[in-house]
TrEMBL record, chains A, B:
Gene3D superfamilies: CHAD domain. Residues 40-354 form the CHAD domain. PROSITE patterns: CHAD. Residues 1-12, 22-31 have a biased composition (Low complexity). Residues 1-36 are annotated as: Disordered. InterPro entries: CHAD_dom, CHAD_dom_sf. Pfam families: CHAD. This is CHAD domain-containing protein.
Amino acid sequence: MQRPENTAARPTPAAPTPAPQAPAAHALAPDPRTPAVALDASAGEVLAPYLHARAGDFLRGLRRHQEAGSDGRSAEEAARALRSAARRVSATLYTFRPLLDAAWADQVRGELGWLSATLAAEHSCAARLTRLLDALHRLSGTRVPPPRGDTGTLAVGAARAGALLDRQLTLTRTRAHSAALQALGSARFHAVADAVALLAGEVPLGAAASARAAEVLVPAALDAEDRLQRAVAALPLARAAHPYNAEALGQESEGQDGPWHQVRLLLRLHRYAREVLDHRPGEPERPERTAAAGVALDRHRDAAGAASAAAAAARTPKIAPATAYALGVLHADQRHEVEAARFTFQRVWQPGAVTTAPAATPAAS
Amino acid sequence: MQRPENTAARPTPAAPTPAPQAPAAHALAPDPRTPAVALDASAGEVLAPYLHARAGDFLRGLRRHQEAGSDGRSAEEAARALRSAARRVSATLYTFRPLLDAAWADQVRGELGWLSATLAAEHSCAARLTRLLDALHRLSGTRVPPPRGDTGTLAVGAARAGALLDRQLTLTRTRAHSAALQALGSARFHAVADAVALLAGEVPLGAAASARAAEVLVPAALDAEDRLQRAVAALPLARAAHPYNAEALGQESEGQDGPWHQVRLLLRLHRYAREVLDHRPGEPERPERTAAAGVALDRHRDAAGAASAAAAAARTPKIAPATAYALGVLHADQRHEVEAARFTFQRVWQPGAVTTAPAATPAAS
């Protein structure tokens, strides 16, 4: 049920094959061939400082996490910084693998993936519960006392559905919290921390890293962008552009979740590869577009996960029909959120594309 | 639960007060001041032939209905023609009431409203059941054997929900059928039929009907258009233009149903008033726009009714949680159909208005 934040896992080859209409030029511009870094430098001279800096972020996050102790908010912020650094290190090891000691890179990447997923689970549970309870609140409209209308039915079950989800997700969250604490005390974790500590001082480069950055680093970043563009080109964006396409519910939409999740991961790999070239972490090129696309894809992932959680809760034995009814409404609501996120992504990605009104067949009356 | 096709009932004063932004000119153009009829004729000379013709339609529909006997399809078609004629006579008596014997017009209109509603109920039940079963079929995606995914949960309950709705709506339909048969044999019905038969030959005009059509008939038609424009101006079209506005579910959206239903009735009154002026029944001006708007509003009414039926079915005692879950999904699906219909209406009515993407707050990750 839990979808871990495991960006470290090597993405499976983009499920969709490249669409016939070529992914075209690198529309994300500015031209990555003229990045902020000195491309006459060797690839290693560009790559190493970036990895040093992110490894430093990781170690600072780790120290803050240890110092936070039982201060929940500080611990959460530190864990967030830790995961952010782990994602960037991991993505860099993936995208620029040809320039690194490949065996070492794969090993560290795998361990960072485990760590990220373990640390993310608790936060993800909490966020999912908040999303579902907010949606139930919105759906049941508890501001106004529900009289006898349709929403009255809903309000009856919404409170019970909320309590059920609260119990289930809080339990999952508590388990995730324990697992994270256990992980942070494990020998496996200390081995990862040691590897990252080494990375803060020295990067195990491969032979190719001595070539000019323009010749080996930039092509690797462009490959990451190409993978993204191909995956996006294979998405059914024309359908997503068509609001209320009546496919929000049912297997067709859910069957499409995977390729969209994949694009989310590829967009992140692309962003981080740009950071390496630009040496300005957190400021990708055309930040508003990339950030907005990322937000839409995060929302897509969150809504899909929340819809699944609502469906899973409805499978709880012996729940009241009113509870099940509210969970059905909630599931549908979150699947519409999934469609809304796809619609937003399409608008961000293809701002020029025309949205057509849903087809309506005129009929005399 | 049943929403009768009662257009004959005098619409309640458009619930919304006129919006500050004036309803503007008669955007439905061409200018009703230059209709197809000869406006130098008296109002009665324009109105009477139209009412004669529609009364003739009514009587032919009635004869066909009696001849159809137990032939379901023929009886349904005849009932449809009968209702169509009744709606037009009734609307004309409403819009052009100042030109008629008012007491007579009000009395006939009331009786036609009763008849239309009685005849429409059976058809409306059947259409609602078809809509709901189609939606369940789409939602459960029975083409593919549902494995363990979220839609599996849905498929389990969808069949039972379908059976429940089938039982409930078939029962309602059977009752409506009996009521219609009883009505058609009643003294009350024969009195209506007699009144319409008289109308086919002579229209009880008021004193004002001897004035020029341009002076009294056209203003009455323009009043109908003004009422429509004001009611549309008071609709939250800007929100409807914003797809996936996250208000499809909950009380806010359902609380808006009334004004939209009202616009549907006013659009029909406007169309029929145009028919009187144009003397070309079935061919309103800019037919594609008016027809598309009408279709969207019919879909709105049907979806709202279907959503209510799903919610009502979920209140059935002792249903299984899986059934209730499917009904919840179905209710949400139909409420999204309501939003989709509003979106379509907005696109048809304000084709130039820009649709903005749902707001997304960029956040770094």
